Amino acid sequence: ELRRLHCPFSKMQFLEKVKMIKKEEPPVTVKNPESLPLYWYETSDSVSRRFHFESDGHLSMKLVDDARPVPQKMVESFLNKFFPSGYPYSVNEGYLRYTQFRALQHFSSAALSVLSTQSLLFAAGLRPTPAQATVVSWILKDGMQHMGKLICSNLGARMDSEPKQWRILADVLYDFGTGLELVSPLCPHLFLELAGLGNFAKGMAVVAARATRLPIYSSFAKEGNLSDIFAKGEAISTLFNVAGIGAGIQLASTVCSSMEGKLVVGSLLSAVHVYCVVEQMRVVPINTLNPQRTALIVANFLKTGKVPRPPDLRLQENLLFPEKPIQDAGNVRVGRALHKAVKPSQVQKLKEVFAEEKFLLSQGKSCTDMVLEHDATGEDALRGWLVAAYAKSMTKIYNDPDDVILQDAYDKMNDVFGPFLSQVQAKGWYTDRFLDGTGTRFAW
Fold it and tell me: Which positions ≥6 away from 350 have C-beta within 8 Å?
């Protein structure tokens, strides 16, 4: 091979090829029309926008023409800043009413906070201006408040089960603490006790309100837009908190300059505050299964043969006493320990009847106790509730022993459970978990 390279003929060929390569011009690239920048116009509601892709691939938008009236521009700008993107189609039913009462709630709460802080400072022997009260409030809310937060943090499982009840309780606790601060000038010798107890209650309220915020916001997230809903909800809260502080300063300088005025206006603001929270919770369509919602689903199914949607069921919920058994669903009570709910002599019989289930049922005179295994899901709770409801209705007709009635009710449940579960899931209920709070469960 080396000899071939040194021969004259091979050298000539090699040099000619090199010259030909050097003489070749680089190919001229002609731009493809399809590779040119792409742009288009979109027109809707008297607004024309030009869209095009930048060289880096990002989509850019430019407003070309906007013929909307000024009020409409302001309304749409407000919606874009304080409502989730795609509203109202991106959220579930009831979001607007929830937001309206949430805004009024934060407005009244902020105004009430200014008045209570001013009262605290008077009780401590100071004579602040209303503006000073808003600044010092951030310092006075500490102290005993931390103790309340620590105690309330142990109740997180109950808040998962009943977020609506605990959200209402949080605002009642907050108003209770604020009320103690408001009346502190009437007994200045008890300033430390009233201020400490008030901040203790407000600390518990803060934890309960924050812990229940996520399940409430999640119930409105129709398109997985939880972060957007959360951010816009906090924007609404901030806006009306600021407005409430301004109103509180004005009230403190005028109507509430006297103690009598503070008591009257404070009571009214507290009533408005709690009413707004109750109305908010009425419209929240939570789709997780807890004892009350499971009982209501079963009761509606036995009456009509249909399963209600979460938005349809929300108005039937008992917000103040959710643990109260529902008669039409078998008066089922969940959460008692196995040794308390079931007699030792009945355990073996019940285990044979419900051999393939993750629950046991024990019928009593007024209630039916249901005890769940440690890994029981929402489906297991629905099965147990249906058996209890059927058994309760059979005892009114037949005089058979309890074990016979339970067996007949169990067989009837198995006949209808397939279509029933399909309805439950089709209506949007989440059946993978059952939130029974701090209820006791068992394992064999």
Answer: 342, 360, 361, 362, 403, 406
Predicted local confidence at residue 437, as pLDDT? 87
Which tens digit of pLDDT belongs to each residue from 257-281? 899 999 999 999 999 999 999 999 9
Instruction: Calculate the CA 369 to chain-centre distance.
Output: 29
Distances in Å between the Cα of 4 and the Cα atoms of 1, 13, 17, 33, 97 are 5, 12, 17, 51, 92
Closest CA to 317 of 294, 351, 346: 294
What the block records as the tokens of 292 is: 């009350």
Q: Is 104 helix (H, G, I), strand (E, B) or coil?
A: helix
Partner residues linked to 121 by β-bridges: none
Q: State the Cα–Cα distance between residues 270 and 276, nearest whole angstrom.
A: 10
Of 437, 93, 102, the residue nearest 288 (C-alpha): 437
- Side chain identity at 379, as an amino acid letter? E
Distance CA 158, CA 292 (A): 13
Highest mean pLDDT among 119-123, 386-390, 391-395: 386-390
The full DSSP string for 33-68 is GGGSPPEEEEEETTEEEEEEE-TTS-EEEEEEEE--
pLDDT of residue 24: 47
E-only strand ranges, 278-378: 288-289, 332-334, 359-363, 368-372
Q: Do 330 and 349 contact (CB within 8 A), yes or no?
A: no
Q: Answer whether 0.70 is exceeded by the pTM.
A: yes
Q: Give the span between the Cα atoms of 408 and 419, in whole angstroms.
A: 19
In SS3 terms, 200-258 reads as HHHHHHHHHHHHHHHHHHHHHECCCCHHHHHHHHHHHHHHHHHHHHHHHHHHHHCHHHC
What is d(CA 332, CA 361) in angstroms, rounded to the nearest whole number? 9
- Helix, strand and coil percent figures for the chain, each rounded to 5: 65, 10, 25
CA distance 223 to 226: 8
What is the tens place of the pLDDT at every residue in 341-371? 888 888 888 888 899 999 999 988 889 999 9
Residues found in the chain: 444
Mean pLDDT in residue range 50-70 = 71
